[in-house]
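Next comes this protein.

***
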Amino acid sequence: MNLPSTYSSFLANVQHYKIGEADELIAESSKIGSFVNKFFNKVMPACYILDYTTGKYIYATSRMRDLIEHPLSYFLDGGIEFSTSLFHKKDLVVYGEKVLPENLAFLKSTPVEEHSDFLFQVNYRGKRKSGGYRNVVQESIFIKSAEDKMPLATLGFLYEVPGAGNESRINHKISRIHDDEMVAPKSIISNIYFSNEQDNLLTKREIEVLKYLCDDLTSEEIAGKLFISRHTVDNHRRKLLEKTNMKTSVGLVKFAIEAGYI
């Protein structure tokens, strides 16, 4: 089966699945109580349970009101249509076309009985009632999946991170949850996306550093070529890794070849 490539196609696909009673989903979410308790003690996030098959939230805590700045009934009655209306439009595109497909591909490669063993994290900009945006982090655990591994319901947490309300950088992570609540979830997949395309374009200086890296020059050698400090070269290299979603210099060389820089 081909995986849905956008959020809207995913929602249309899962409408045909049977998910069971709401009480069963709430009971399922309680099975991961140790992690939930640790999370609540840490940041007191808003919490919800989302049924993808209906596009409705079957449960939400009162903390949700602080984030949406509307009565809780707006969230519960409006469902996904209302909640996505609060996304920055460009961030929603990235979520639907990049983050969600990555999540679905990971779940497809994971035994269905292990789906609730992983934490899926992403940040995006949410609208403020007074204007502007707040930076919101969303943590999700898939608590119900079909036999074909398509996720049907999620237990989610939302909390605001001060500042960065205008940044287009979106961090996406998938981590394994440990039974020991003293051990932080270990990241398995980590991606960085930019919802403003110009933020993901390489600058002239970054391209220069990239080409020298492809020539196997060290940071000291590149600094001498460009009459800049090694610290500045290292900063450019870090930015290159972030913008290209690569993890090593070998990956940067591969990117440079595919992008036509060398």
